[in-house]
Design brief:
This protein is about 95% helix and about 0% strand. It is mainly α and about 160 residues long. It folds into 2 domains: about 1-90; about 90-155.
Amino acid sequence: AAQSDLAAELQKAKDEAATIERELSASLHAAEVARDQLQSQIDALAAKVEEKDREVTDVANAAQATKADLTAQLKAAREEAASNLKAKLSGGEAADRLQRKVAELEVANDELQASKTDVESQLKSREEAVEGLQSRLADLEAKRKHFEDLVSTVRNE
C-alpha cells in the first residue's frame, strides 16, 4: 500500500511538473511573441528616425545652398551699388553737394552738443537745488521735532 501511495504521489508530482512545464512553455512562447512584436516596433521606429534624420539633413543642405546663393546675390548687389555710387559721385557737383551736406551735419552736431551741455548743466544745477532743499527740509524737520519736544515738556510741567 505504501508503494502504491508513493507511486500515486510520484504520478501526481509528474502531472504537476508537466502542467507547470506546459504553463512555462506557454509563458515563454507569449514572451517570445511579445519580444518579436517589440523588436518590430523598435525596427519601425529606427526606420522613422533614420528617415527624419535624412529629411533634416536634406533641409540643412538646402538651407546651406540657399544661404550661399543669397550671400552671392548680396555680394553682387553690394558691388553694383558701390559701382553706381562711384559713378554718381564721380561728378564734381555731386561731390560738392556731399561735402556741403557733411558740413551742415557737422554744424547741426555741434549745436546738439552745445544744447546737450546746456541741458546737463541745468540738470546739475537743479539736482544741487533739490539737494539743498532736502537738506533744508531735514533741518526744518529736526526743528519741528525739537519744538514738539519743548511743547510736550511745557505741557507736562
